[in-house]
Amino acid sequence: MFALLAAAAIAAAAPAFAHHSFAMFDITKQQTVTGTVSRIDWTNPHIWLWIDVPNDKGGSDTYGFEGMSPNFLARRGWTRTTLKAGDKITVNYRPMKDGKNGGMFMTAKANGKALSMMGGSDDPSQAYEQK
Amino acid sequence: MLFVLAAVAGQQYVYKAPTAADWAAMAKLPDFSGVWERGTVGTGGNSNAAFGPQPTRGNQPPAGATGAAPQRGATGGQRAGGGAGRGAGQRGPSFTPQYEAMRAAAARQPQPEDNSTANCLPPGMPGIMTQPYPMEFLMTPGKVTIVIEAYTEVRHIYTDGRPLPQDSDPNFFGTSVGHWEGDTLVVETVGFNDHVEIARGVPHSEKMKITERFRLTDQDTMAMETTITDPVVLTEPYTTNGILKRHRDWTISEYICEENNRNSVDQSGKAGINLSLPGTKKD
Fold first, then answer.
1. CATH assignment of B30-55+73-272?
2. Most-buried pick from A28, B21, B25, B146 (CB within 10 A)?
3. How far B225 CA lies from chain A's nearest CA (Å)?
């Protein structure tokens, strides 16, 4: 998905989204939200994570997070069941510029595991499931 | 390798089943077969940059971790020459005056938020060769086929001795022929559509040609040199260098961009995203 033809210096710090830019996300910010996984779409061109986050009205709000592609992640330690509906999850993300609930999936903690879209190592066991 | 495709009147090339001798001759060629992933970007030519961004494996920070805003242009994914951003020590394409004026004019305009890859159109050449997804090289008598995971694309490189077409229909990946110079596969490609830009706001001419040189530098490393010539647009050939790494335990995965594409871009370059939960009315 990196269709970015940006300067190499900039691109080196950007994730491997081949297919679009980050125009919708405020990549100067990081936010964290905790909820329950309602749905994981293990689909191209990108996975989508949907979680329910309790709100102050006694209900919950739906948040949607765009991640990397299943192809990319499957080569880096993820499987389609790494996250499942019902998992308690804390997501670190780049928020939407327009303030809507969701953003770009960066890292998460779920089921005691640290998960990352990119990781910090080529060793998936270290990068993507840091215990 | 004219033995595979027999030339007949009018430069028509007709498929003829390879013989045992044709297959035996394959064994003398370097083995490019298998699944390759773009590696770290090499140096050389007149740019240190490959066409696309650098790979994002390894110890690099997570997406956007530095806070640096990615830059991109109108058809960034399809730009042939590197386009907008140039890092230190890199030199972009050198344009003839008329086209340099186009580049400068485009640079003064606000950058579009996204390009048509957001709508699942593939990048054209040579950007399709630098995607963060692997490619499988298949070698058969008279042909090298590159199966590209990103966007589920294929390049057909005829090595049977046929000439480049004189007047091919323009398309994303052009029309390619190849030949071997020792252990180097030299691929010449012509005939690109308007999705292929040399830089943001700078079109190519009908004379644009891409010459790629592929050669093994060790058992599982391949050097990929890419040179764009366009005597109308460029004052000199523009060359970038990259490398590919062979992953002998990888296979090509399915990649159907339209499966669940929630990104979009409109004609003005404004990006969009669908944040509606699947199954709800807005989805």
1. 2.40.128.20
2. B146
3. 17
Nearest by CB to A15, which of B56, B67, B123?
Answer: B56
Confidence grade of residue A118 (pLDDT, cut at 50, 70, 90): confident
Residue carrying structure tokens 């692997």: B134
Expressed as residue numbers, the domain containing A112 is 22-127
Which chain A positions have a beta carbon within 8 Å of B71's beta carbon?
A: 4, 6-7, 10
String of DSSP letters for A82-120? SS-TT-EEEEEEEEBTT--SEEEEEEEEETTEEEESS-S
Give the pLDDT confidence of B163-212 residue by residue, as tens digits.
999 999 999 999 999 999 999 999 999 999 999 988 888 999 999 999 99
pLDDT over 50 (residue B241): yes
| C-alpha torsion sign, points B104, B107, B112, B116 | positive
Bridge partner list, B123:
none
**Are the beta carbons of A118 and B41 separated by less than 8 Å?**
no
- Cα–Cα distance measured from residue B61 to residue B76, given in angstroms and rounded to the nearest whole number: 23
pLDDT at B89 (0 to 100): 43
- Domain ranges (residues) in chain B: 30-55+73-272
What digits encode the pLDDT tens for the residues B43-72? 333 333 333 333 333 333 333 333 333 333
Of A6, A21, A94, which has the smallest distance from its Cβ to B271's Cβ? A21
